[in-house]
Amino acid sequence: MGELVVDTDLLIETGEHLGFVAREFDDADRYAETVADAVGDDTLADAIRSFANDWKNRRAKMQESIGNLAELTTAVGSELQSADDGLASSLEGEA
């Protein structure tokens, strides 16, 4: 029979990191505006603002997907850990 080996701590941590990435997407407009203000050239600043605006819809879709993946990854890690703890507890009770 096959053996399933899952590092649940790593799975949960990965979900947390994905959540951080999703939150960073929230701040992208502010970052773009800060960069545009700092470049010192109006043409370049306008290009940065234009790019940020054009990228807004795609970024929103990616942010939603990454946020969902973060939640699912964390939930799977937690559920697997809980199931493993339950099985371990059952085996200890039989001993």
Summarize the structure in short.
The protein is mainly alpha-helical.
What this model shows, in words?
With 95 residues, this protein is an all-alpha fold. It has one domain (8-87). 87% of the residues lie in helices and 0% in strands.
Percent in helix: over 70%
Mean pLDDT over the residues: 89
Can you tell me the number of structural domains? 1
Radius of gyration: 21 Å
Largest sheet: none
What would you call the shape? Answer: rod-shaped
**Spatial gap, N to C terminus:** 23 Å
Number of separate strands: 0
Question: How many separate helices?
Answer: 3
- Point out poorly predicted stretches: none
Instruction: Spell out the helices and strands N to C.
Output: HHH
Structural class: mainly alpha
Proportion of residues in β-strands: under 5%
Overview features:
3 helices; single chain; mainly alpha
